[in-house]
Specification:
Elements: H1 2-9, H2 31-44, E1 48-54, H3 61-69, H4 71-74, E2 77-83, H5 90-96, E3 101-105, H6 106-114, E4 119-127, E5 137-141, E6 157-160, H7 166-177, E7 186-189, H8 192-200, E8 206-210, H9 213-219, E9 223-226, H10 228-232, E10 237-244, H11 245-250, H12 252-271, H13 273-283, H14 288-293, H15 305-317
Parallel strand pairs: 1-2, 1-3, 6-7, 6-8
Antiparallel strand pairs: 3-10, 4-10, 5-8, 5-9
Helix pairs in contact: 1-8, 3-12, 3-13
InterPro entries: SsuA/THI5
Pfam family, one: NMT1
Family: Belongs to the bacterial solute-binding protein SsuA/TauA family.
């Protein structure tokens, strides 16, 4: 079954490849603000085209829903969603101006800032559910594996989709919390569609896999060793929508409009999970049966700053970042 799902979804799922949020920000605008903006746009008959770069995965369902529901049009925005097969083009796309806004996991943007690029999140994107029974990502081992706890990952090979990113950062923390030495875990870079096969063949001893591949692996007999996001922090923000510091500073009205529309989209997606599953079928090749069974991320319109700070601290501790992260320069103000 996994092989069938992997073949169907491989082209559409490369979650968090390199790339993939706040009180007092434009997101705190009253609901009526969007309505008045819509009225102005409708009266003037003018819209502003914006291009947003995303990876076609379950996590980005809210922006697709928001477009279909007209939330961006209400703000006078003509939304052009551009998909990337992986995250390697996401940050450079924003930096070059090819994208007005884009979707990425938190650590990828932190790494960009660590290297001197001025990038800022303007809306949350996807978060841990906080519930192990409903979580969409996990570290899996074979059903008969002698690995019983995260501490047992010492000296073992664990697959992640990208090294020095959100997967290995959270897993290292979970291993350390369990009394293990995270420096002794051997992380191997394996794309999510190939991870379950690598586990089956013994190429790796454990595999970090996100849905729909997580569900497929469990159905094939693999065992959840760790829900690493939940265990790292049950309120963990994983990804969000960002832009350049220049856009935030010099185009505040545009940024506010995008944030309002995106936040409305996130809230709507969280309240309508079936519509999320339905719209995922319009931009990925994940079949209906799989969409019905897979776990969804939590979608919310405010960042949990404490969890973001915890993630930033862990990334610095384990060497992914060279210096502390200033959340006031990363998250919406």
């Amino acid at each position: 079954m996994f092989k069938r799902i992997a073949t169907a979804a491989a082209a559409a799922l490369t979650l968090f490849s390199l790339a993939a949020c706040g009180a007092g920000s434009p997101s705190s605008a009253q609901p009526g603000a969007a309505g008045s903006s819509a009225s102005g746009a409708a009266a003037g008959g003018q819209t502003q085209k914006i291009t947003v770069g995303v990876i076609p995965i379950v996590d980005t369902a809210p922006i697709w829903l928001g477009k279909s529901k007209g939330f961006f049009a209400e703000e006078g925005l003509d939304l052009d969603i551009q998909t990337a097969t992986g995250g390697s083009a996401i940050v450079p796309g924003v930096q070059s101006g090819s994208y007005d806004f884009a979707f990425s996991n938190l650590i990828s943007v932190m790494v960009a800032k660590d290297k001197g690029l001025d990038m800022r999140f303007v809306a949350d994107g996807a978060s841990s559910t906080g519930d192990p029974a409903k979580e969409f990502g996990a570290v899996l081992v074979k059903g008969d594996s002698p690995i019983k706890t995260a501490k047992d990952l010492e000296g073992k090979k664990v697959s992640v989709n990208n090294l020095s990113n959100i997967g290995d950062t959270t897993i290292k923390s979970v291993v350390e919390k369990a009394g293990g030495d995270p420096s002794k875990v051997q992380f191997v870079e394996v794309a999510f569609p190939d991870a379950q096969a690598a586990l089956d063949k013994g190429v790796v001893d454990a595999a970090w896999i996100l849905d729909p591949f997580r569900t497929a692996g469990v159905e094939a007999g693999d065992r959840v060793l760790s829900n690493n996001f939940v265990e790292f922090d049950p309120k963990l923000d994983i990804a969000g929508y960002f832009t350049s510091g220049d856009t935030v500073k010099n185009k505040p009205e545009l940024t506010a409009k995008f944030t309002r529309a995106m936040n409305k989209s996130l809230d709507y997606a969280q309240q309508h999970p079936q519509e999320v599953r339905d719209i995922v079928g319009t931009y990925t090749k994940i079949d209906a049966a799989t969409r019905a069974k897979m776990n969804l991320p939590l979608y919310r319109s405010t960042f949990d700053r404490a969890s973001v700070q915890k993630l930033a601290d862990a990334a610095q501790k384990y060497g992914t970042l060279s210096k502390p992260v200033n959340l006031d320069e990363l998250l919406p103000r």
